[in-house]
């Protein structure tokens, strides 16, 4: 009997220690979110996805709402992305390059995790992995592993002193790397020459949403169910289609704390759309289909098989 009590006590102690370690790991990730957005630095990083490899130079100064950062492409279409606090603007010498800047601004490394990560634990487990060395700096690997097979996992190597993400990989349910960012060199501290924070190109485009948000009770006049565990409605609005100001589309944005999933719903016009799923850009997939007299489009950071499963389980109705 004493042996049984002893083993039970050991199991309880081990469980308590594991829970405490997980809490500590979540605390480290919270610190990394702040560093990824606000730590003054100068560095060069690589972005690799779908056979494409790009190089960017990043400069950042200030803190809090006063953060000012500028990144410029070192290859491919010439473009710059400037962030002032929460406002992001793309710059380029021509319209084609400006379109490339809009794509680059969709994911601004190293700030790939959301501002608030408290809700992530419902859909992801955190695990501390091995140590590493990247850009001549020691770092520790962490993994955010989804609790289902519908989402991507994320692995981050955080610099030991500042918790700045030096490398971030997005991995498929089969553990294949589908996208990654990595510093090749980085220095902490604001750049001495403030001129590097100013854009050089003439054409510009504000990246923040231009849609007019309406009260949620009006915009969310449809009910949606069947989404994977953890997804919650975070915003609802109505948007006008480009060149069709009189035609409005409902947009509902859902999030599990890490992934953003946009649902666009509009009245059926003509023949129903043929359901389809495809990769849009990097880790972003899209799916379309119809239900009743409504047609829908899903866009989000999900694998194609995950997006396909969501489209099949999605239920859209009017209250």
From TrEMBL:
Main location class: periplasm
Cellular compartments annotated: Periplasm
Matches recorded under CDD domains: RseB
Residues spanning the signal sequence: 1-21
Boundaries of every MucB/RseB N-terminal domain copy: 29-199
Pfam families (alphabetical): MucB_RseB (PF03888), MucB_RseB_C (PF17188)
GO biological process assignments: regulation of polysaccharide biosynthetic process
Domain MucB/RseB C-terminal per the UniProt entry, residue ranges: 221-314
Protein name: Sigma E regulatory protein, MucB/RseB
Lineage, highest ranks first: Bacteria, Pseudomonadati, Pseudomonadota, Betaproteobacteria, Neisseriales
